[in-house]
């Protein structure tokens, strides 16, 4: 009997969940915290991450970064200017990262002694939201130019975030961005989540973001988002949906 597309999807996600759980335990034993960064293309996350990495290097923190794209090593080249160890992960057309890919790079590349690994996921707010990578912290970034209704359009991504970062805040005025409406929408899908405001052009927010990440690495309590890290639907022909289950990203 042939399996349905939904059954196959469920099996793929279940396998990923198992790998992610094993990887999370392994990373915990090694003292490595993983930060999974999700956003749309053009949110400014690469520039902001570069700022955060540079701050970490200045403080001699054992940090590294993996950056994922369908093609080119442009982002790795940009991030490497920070002085931190950086590796490009090419997905060859895949719209998201999976736990098996991260495990492979952790095993083959992660520099010894690294305690903080940033993973810049593929630019996409749908597919990556479904896949647990074994991360300690999931951060969703959004630029003011994207519109204050984004959290409502992509509830799985925003609803599974431990932290939300609003980027390009210097453009809020020209873009006509309604910050009050944005905050209301974020809290609607993820009550209690903190929103960090940033501007990569000036560096604003980079230090705050680094401190939040370091606090989690050092054992600080993590916000518990209301949605599971995966909605168990991954069809590009359907709208992004969500389930009202408590997230399991942090054991």
Automatic annotation (TrEMBL):
Residues 34-196 form the CobW/HypB/UreG nucleotide-binding domain. Gene3D superfamilies: P-loop containing nucleotide triphosphate hydrolases (3.40.50.300). SUPFAM superfamilies: P-loop containing nucleoside triphosphate hydrolases (SSF52540). InterPro entries: CobW/HypB/UreG_nucleotide-bd, Hyd_mat_HypB, P-loop_NTPase. Keywords: GTP-binding, Hydrolase, Metal-binding, Nickel, Nucleotide-binding, Zinc. Residues 221-251 are annotated as: Disordered. PANTHER family: HYDROGENASE MATURATION FACTOR HYPB, HYDROGENASE PROTEIN ASSEMBLY PROTEIN, NICKEL CHAPERONE. Belongs to the SIMIBI class G3E GTPase family. HypB/HupM subfamily. This is Hydrogenase nickel incorporation protein HypB. It comes from Streptomyces massasporeus.
């Amino acid at each position: 009997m042939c399996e349905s597309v939904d059954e196959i999807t469920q099996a793929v996600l279940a396998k990923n969940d198992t790998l992610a759980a094993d990887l999370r335990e392994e990373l915990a034993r090694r003292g490595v915290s993983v930060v999974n960064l999700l956003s749309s293309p053009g949110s400014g996350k690469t520039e902001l991450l570069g700022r955060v990495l540079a701050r970490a290097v200045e403080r001699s923190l054992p940090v590294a970064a993996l950056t994922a794209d369908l093609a080119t090593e442009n982002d790795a080249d940009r991030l490497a200017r920070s002085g931190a160890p950086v590796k490009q992960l090419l997905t060859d057309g895949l719209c998201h990262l999976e736990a098996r890919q991260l495990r492979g790079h952790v095993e083959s590349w992660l520099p010894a002694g690294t305690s903080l690994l940033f993973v810049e996921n593929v630019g996409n707010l749908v597919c990556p939201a479904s896949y647990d990578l074994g991360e300690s912290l999931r951060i969703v970034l959004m630029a003011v130019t994207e519109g204050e209704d984004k959290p409502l359009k992509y509830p799985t991504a925003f609803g599974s975030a431990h932290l939300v970062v609003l980027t390009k805040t210097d453009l809020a005025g020209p873009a006509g961005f309604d910050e009050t409406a944005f905050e209301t929408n974020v809290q609607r899908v993820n009550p209690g989540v903190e929103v960090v405001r940033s501007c990569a052009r000036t560096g604003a927010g980079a230090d705050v973001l680094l401190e939040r990440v370091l606090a989690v690495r050092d054992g600080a309590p993590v916000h518990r988002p209301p949605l599971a890290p995966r909605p168990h639907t991954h069809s590009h022909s359907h709208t992004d949906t969500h389930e009202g289950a408590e997230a399991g990203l942090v054991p």
